[in-house]
Design goal:
The structure holds 2 protein chains of 2 kinds.
Chain A (H helix, E strand, L loop, with lengths): L1 H10 L7 H13 L20 H9 L10 E4 L8 H11 L2 E2 H4 E7 L4 E6 L1 H7 L3 H12 L2 E5 L2 E5 L5 H13 L1 E3 L7 E5 L6 E5 L4 H4 L11 E2 L2 H8 L1 H18 L6 H11 L20 H7 L2 H11 L9 H6 L16 H4 L6
Helix pairs in contact in A: 2-12, 3-11, 10-11, 11-12, 13-14
Chain B lengths: L1 E2 L8 E4 L2 H11 L8 E3 L3 H6 L6 E8 L2 E10 L2
Parallel strand pairs in B: 3-5
Antiparallel strand pairs in B: 1-2, 2-4, 4-5
């Protein structure tokens, strides 16, 4: 028992240990071995998620939207076993825009109508009928529509050329089926457990959890800001660490999770997700010298001078800058004396 | 007040009683503003009905390592 106790104490972080610097080094060094370039494949649309250094940079800089948003959607009840039921749920999620269904468009400016010829093939693969499409369009844009075979005629209230054109653009962008921002949803099976789940190329988890059959407690996305909006800072902090770990693991780089958790903690300590760089943690340090030593030296010094800022010289950077001992480890121990005790010392 | 976690990624949040807040600050030699922050508009805060000045106790679990974390509710 005593032996384990000593072992445990040996692993504990000691007072004044520079955990942040150690975390930075532990992530920074393996980072040099990662791929610097994200993969690009002509023709394949967002099938491969960003990985390696570009992804790390994206996370650490707290980019609002990831380059390749992805969501993993687990299913509730029988749908997680039955591939047909899962396909049905995926259909409800899969985002279909009008633009992909259109084969040909004829705009009649003298009558004020737009005649849209739909692609039979696309309709079939999405499981939609022209009637459904027309109904949805009518509801979305509040226009009168009529259907004949595979053509939809939209009747406009005006004959204004500009307005007809604008409506046409709105039509192509309107979401006919599925959830806006959910992207393309594909059903996949976990080869180990046999569980069926859906992967979608979007990060609108706010919308996805409203779909019936989706396991609300396990929906996950690689968009940390979407997690933040839906579940709050604590969840975002976990997602951030999880994403960092996953990216590093993918490159077969092993970094202790505690370093990544520390980074995630630091980034979320203000209640939202802050980047590490100039506009985030480094740019908001209280010390003028620390900020000036990082980036935009002149700007910070001039501002500090004109507003009369004070630097308490408590950090590492500013003390290196002026050549003082840095407050780390033994350097953080100071000799102090109480005011009352001062009077006891009598000068000779 | 405790709210059950609604997602595997969300740890359990709980509003700390005033007495406990004082004990915590005293034992750790902290002031309220030294604590990490959480916005009043945060989904978990809304659920608990936490107001600025409250301290939220978070039951964290990092890969089996269970510990407590505290955040002070701020406006925003």
């Amino acid at each position: 028992m005593a032996k384990t106790q000593t072992k445990e104490n040996n692993y504990a972080v000691e007072y004044s240990e520079p955990v942040g610097i150690i975390a930075a080094q532990s992530v920074g060094e393996p980072g040099t071995q990662m791929i610097l370039r994200s993969f690009h494949f002509a023709g394949i649309e967002s099938a491969i998620a960003t990985s390696g250094l570009p992804r790390i940079v994206e996370l650490v800089d707290a980019k609002k939207k990831p380059t390749t948003p992805l969501s993993t959607i687990y299913l509730e009840g029988p749908a997680s076993k039955d591939i047909e039921l899962a396909e049905k749920v995926a259909k409800k999620i899969n985002e279909v825009r009008m633009g992909t269904l259109i084969r040909r468009v004829v705009e009649n400016f003298s009558k004020g109508t737009i005649r849209i010829l739909l692609s039979k093939q696309e309709l079939e693969s999405e499981g939609l009928t022209p009637g459904q499409v027309a109904d949805k369009l009518g509801k979305l844009l509040k226009v009168d529509t009529s259907v004949e075979k595979h053509a939809i005629t939209v009747k406009m209230h005006t004959k204004n050329l500009k307005e007809i054109r604008q409506t046409m653009v709105k039509i192509t962008k309107s979401v006919i089926n599925g959830i806006e921002g959910a992207g393309k949803a594909v059903v996949q099976t976990n080869p180990k457990t046999g569980e069926i789940y859906i992967v979608s190329a979007g990060s609108n988890i706010e919308g996805i959890i409203t779909v019936d059959g989706v396991d609300k407690s396990r929906v996950y996305t690689n968009d940390v800001f979407a997690v933040y909006r839906q579940f709050g800072v604590e969840a975002a902090r976990n997602a951030l660490a999880r994403e960092l770990k996953a990216t590093l693991d993918e490159q077969k780089i092993s970094v202790d999770i505690r370093h990544l958790l520390l980074i995630a903690d630091a980034m979320t300590s203000t209640g939202t997700i802050k980047g590490v760089g100039r506009h985030g943690l480094s740019g908001e340090k209280s010390s003028v010298f620390a900020r000036a030593a990082y980036e935009e030296t002149v700007k910070h010094l001039i501002n500090a001078a004109s507003f009369g800022e004070t630097d308490h010289m408590r950090g590492v950077t500013e003390n290196i800058l002026v050549g003082k001992q840095i407050p780390i480890g033994t350097g953080s121990v100071k000799l102090a004396i109480k005011k009352e005790d001062m009077s006891k010392i009598k000068p000779k | 007040m405790v709210n059950k976690s609604d997602h595997e990624i969300v740890p359990v949040h709980e509003i700390l009683k005033l007495k406990e807040v004082n004990e915590l600050l005293e034992s750790k030699n902290l002031r309220l503003e030294n604590l990490p922050k959480i916005f009043e508009s945060d989904p978990q805060c809304k659920k608990l009905g936490a107001k600025p000045g409250h301290v939220i106790k978070i039951h964290r679990n990092d890969n089996g390592n269970q510990y407590l974390y505290y955040r002070v509710v701020v406006e925003g």
